Amino acid sequence: MSKIRALYLNEMIKISKKISILVMAAIMVVGMIGLSGLMKLQERMMQQDGYYQDDQSWMLEEMEQISANLKAQEEDLQNQLDATDQEDNPAEYQQLAYQLSSLQREYEMYQLAIKENIMLIGPETYLTRTLYKISDLESELAALPPEAERTTEDQASAEDIEAKLSTCEEILKARSFEKYIELESDAIEADQTMSNDQKVISTEKLELWYKLDPTGGIESSGNDYMIQQTLSEFENIKTSLAEGIDYTGNEGVKPLTPDKYGELENDLAVLLYRAENDMLASQYTSEGLGQAAVSTMVGFGTSMIVLMILILAGGAVSQEIATGSIKSLIIAPVKRWKIFTAKLMSLLTVGIVGMIVHYVLVIILTGIFFGLDTLQPYVFAVSGKAGSLNPFVYLLAGQGVRLLDVIVFMSFALMLSVLTRNTAASVGISMASFFGVSLASELLFILPAAEWIKFLPFNHLSLISKFFPFAEQNYFMENQNETTLVFSLIYITIAVVCMIYTALDSFNRRDIK
Question: Domain count of the chain?
Fold first, then answer.
């Protein structure tokens, strides 16, 4: 062990003297500072441009232009209607009359929106929904027979519609989100086409909306899209669990399996936990930009560490053979496997130290530019119960997972260095493989599910999504060739052992000239 330790210290001294280490470390630090600064600058520019404020002037201008276009279309339809003989062309006359009536109601809705200063353009609010509801109710009222020809049932329907219209007008006048919730809840309860489960889910969705945003979208915080997306996901998951049919996938509706049922229960628990703890942040908020900056710094820093390790591992043996410096070790009374072990340990040490420095740097830069509150905990769920992991522990655990990628590419580059004895070839091939992984991973998404695809190495790298499935869920794309975490870990272990053994065997057997 003393000889291995001495060899290890010797390797660490040689590595510390390499200019490439300092250059890559400097690029990583400067790059991360630059990325953080750019994200902070973007945040300030967005604030100055009014992304966080209700800039309604252009919306009003756009609505006035739409209203003017609707008025012009209305006049054109009226002229067509006047020129059409009702007796000769009753069908055409009726169609034009219907189109004119619909256009008039839409025009009146825009006029009312302009008068009440309600934005029909932009994020949806309870006020815009109320305006559309008024338009629908007026359509229903217009479809009823004239008052003189109404039956008792028609008259009751008319009175119910007029009562709802009156309530909608009160909502607009009082700007009351609570009254809107009451109106919608009553409508849900009275809807005979909905099952009891559907009524419960719709009511809970309204309650969740009120909890997420008590203003109903009036005071925009930049999270309007995230709130609506959360409500949509909540409804889909609850409906799937209630009906036993999966409505959340991208492959159409299909029966809910027991495994998928448990997965959706956990998804629902995580979604509600995030909603209740105010953890919904879009890219258009300061918090969302901070989180995006953290992800960018983590990705950039990890890539730089991998490249640094590839350069060191790619020349660990081949460069010393080329310069002849390895002969001094070979002729010493030390077994070759100890020399190889020392080199491997030194490379692994550099990778671990690099990831730790990177971790500290991410925390420091996040605190300086965005505040440490930007770091979000990892929310997870087990058996339908949600919990969270401290953000600093989560970030450190993520660095540990990313270290696996570093080890894989380090082993590959070291193996090439021993086999080819050519630094340019070993570094070049390993770098090409590193940059090609992302492209290969994307191609796996479009390939049909097949067993042989699961044995490709690209499917087992970047294990963050497998270790922390609730952190990076993709609701728009599902990889049909996804493998389990255990299978990926076994695959990576076997691959690394094989590469290290191949490199060690070649290093022990081949002559060094």
Answer: 1
Q: How far is CA 416 from CA 25, 157, 312, 425, in A?
A: 24, 81, 12, 8
Mean per-residue pLDDT over the chain, rounded:
84
Q: Can you spell out the DSSP letters for 415-439? A: HHHHHH--HHHHHHHHHHHHHHHHH
34 pLDDT band, cuts 50/70/90, is very high
Per DSSP, the residues of 390-411 read -HHHHHHHHHHHHHHHHHHHHH
Q: Which long-range contacts (CB under 8 A, 24 or more apart) does 181-189 make?
A: 181/206, 181/207, 181/210
- Whether residue 157 lies inside any domain: the answer is no
Q: Are 165 and 137 in contact (CB under 8 A)?
A: yes
- Rounded to whole angstroms, the Cα distance separating 168 from 158 reads 15
Mean pLDDT is lowest, of 173-187, 234-248, 456-470, for 456-470
Within 10 Å of residue 462's Cβ, how many Cβ atoms? 18
Residue at token pair 């740097």: 361
Q: How many CB atoms neighbour CB 267 within 10 A?
A: 24
Residue 309: domain span: 2-49+284-509
CB 244 within 8 A of CB 185: no
Distance CA 358, CA 392 (A): 13
CA-based Rg of the chain, rounded to a whole angstrom? 32
End-to-end distance of the chain based on CA atoms, in angstroms?
A: 28
Q: For residue 131, is it within any domain?
A: no
Q: Is residue 190 domain-resident?
A: no
The residues near 174 (Cβ < 8 Å, ≥ 6 apart) are: none
What DSSP state is assigned to residue 121? S
**Phi/psi of residue 255, each to 5°?**
-60, 150
Could you tell me if residue 203 is inside a domain?
A: no
